[in-house]
Design brief:
Layout (H helix, E strand, L loop, with lengths): L2 H9 L7 H34 L1 H11 L8 H16 L15
Helix pairs in contact: 2-3
Length: 103
């Protein structure tokens, strides 16, 4: 999130009446901004994680699985196939000018 986006987000938050109100408003606005960013960039971000950090990608997938998830023979074959495809993929190279900062 850029400094400008943060300033804009803070500008729309009304003056708080108590700490709970502040937390609620910040949470709501943060989730709105996060949703908008994910809607615009989520597909690319997930793809980048899959290509650049397959271990983190698989951890993310595993964290989303139900705790009582049972792998069947068919599912383990599918998982092995996905892993093999990821290993054969060409890594994505992202160039970034460090002088530009993040955002």
């Amino acid at each position: 999130m850029s400094a400008h986006e943060l300033e804009t987000m803070m500008a729309v938050i009304p003056a708080p009446t108590d700490k709970r109100t502040v937390r609620t408003k910040l949470n709501e606005r943060f989730l709105d901004v996060l949703y908008e960013d994910f809607y615009e960039n989520g597909h690319a971000a997930v793809r980048d994680v899959r290509m650049l950090a397959p271990d983190k990608y698989l951890k993310m997938v595993a964290d989303l699985m139900p705790k009582d998830f049972n792998l069947t023979h068919d599912a383990s074959d599918a998982f092995a196939s996905i892993w093999q495809n990821m290993q054969n993929a060409t890594p994505l190279v992202i160039e970034h000018d460090m002088d530009e900062g993040i955002g």
